[in-house]
């Protein structure tokens, strides 16, 4: 089924992978091995302040370096990892690696920025999540305020659980963002109840912002609602200038998207941060 392979090719699992249980078992087996063999890597996508243009954070995004299939995107293995429960081990690794990498950038005296990590529902339902996160922060030496956890609206449906869990987590000093905001089947009830710091506007609303008055209205409304609730707001999937100008005009705080950078390796982020540091240094010298 693998037609072609190559180190940097993003090979897709074929359609059949999704349907045949044998193939699914194989993928599951491969995934289990991948955890043991350490075949996952993280890429990072910069997040920019919309008024200054500087990098204010990065999102960690997992990829699977499959020995035969090449670089496999998360959409091809996260769903199965979630179903099988393997996401917990993968997620533990992602969390620790993202914290380790962020601390390593700080140790290189690069500008300090938070790293965002995506949490899956299984991870969120773990009894010992806060303990785990606290241990990882202690082990890596990263201060909690440089960690941001992205959860989705679906995880807030059980408001009582979410409220206990998020209060514990935020007591550590980290930030919580709501990913893919606007796409979940949830009420706004949780927005005022839970200790959330930031909304991430789903890229499906950003995509047609210029052509679709409905999308434009929704994005403008999310930004203003976020600000009225004292939340930060970031737009995902910004690909062109028109979208960026719309967001600037409506005072969106931050953005993330291919217009500035796709997710890249950690070493590229270090280079980007280095040039940020150089600019900051020049500014200081001039003032
Ligand atoms: P997400 O958390 O919403 O991440 C943003 C996704 O949008 C990333 O896809 C990113 O590459 C893509 N993206 C960024 N800018 C643009 C843009 O301008 N245009 C378009 N079309 N796309 C853009 P990626 O890396 O393939 O990740 C897909 C999803 O997989 C993530 O969506 C997240 O839900 C999940 N995921 C990734 N890493 C992890 C992880 O470590 N743990 C868990 N539980 N889920 C993860
Ligand atoms: Mg995310
Ligand atoms: Mg998202
Ligand atoms: Mg998503």
TrEMBL record:
Domain of life where this protein originates: Bacteria
Cleaved signal peptide residues: none
Occurrences of domain EAL (ranges): 24-277
Name under which the protein is recorded: Bifunctional diguanylate cyclase/phosphodiesterase
């Amino acid at each position: 089924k693998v037609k072609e392979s190559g180190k940097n090719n993003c090979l897709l699992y074929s359609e059949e992978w999704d349907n045949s249980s044998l193939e699914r078992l194989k993928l599951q087996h491969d995934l289990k091995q991948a955890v043991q063999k350490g075949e996952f890597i993280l890429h990072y996508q910069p997040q920019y302040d919309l008024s200054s243009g500087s990098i204010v954070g990065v999102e960690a995004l997992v990829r699977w370096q499959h020995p035969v299939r090449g670089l496999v995107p998360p959409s091809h293995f996260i769903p199965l990892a979630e179903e099988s429960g393997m996401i917990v081990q993968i997620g533990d690794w992602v969390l620790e690696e993202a914290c380790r990498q962020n601390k390593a950038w700080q140790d290189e005296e690069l500008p300090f920025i938070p790293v965002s990590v995506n949490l899956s529902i299984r991870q969120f339902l773990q009894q010992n999540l806060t303990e785990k996160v606290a241990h990882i922060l202690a082990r890596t030496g990263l201060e909690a305020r440089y960690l941001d956890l992205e959860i989705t609206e679906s995880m807030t449906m059980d408001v009582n659980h979410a409220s206990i869990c998020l209060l514990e987590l935020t007591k550590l000093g980290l930030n919580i963002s709501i990913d893919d905001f606007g796409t979940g089947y949830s009420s706004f009830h949780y927005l005022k109840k839970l200790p959330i710091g930031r909304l991430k506007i789903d890229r499906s609303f950003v995509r047609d912002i210029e052509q679709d008055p409905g999308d434009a209205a929704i994005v403008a409304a999310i930004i203003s609602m976020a600000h009225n609730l004292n939340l930060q707001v970031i737009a995902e999937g910004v690909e062109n200038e028109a979208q960026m100008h719309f967001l600037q005009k409506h005072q969106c705080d931050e953005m993330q998207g291919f217009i500035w950078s796709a997710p890249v390796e950690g070493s590229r982020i270090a280079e980007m941060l280095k040039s940020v540091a150089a600019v900051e240094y020049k500014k200081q010298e001039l003032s």
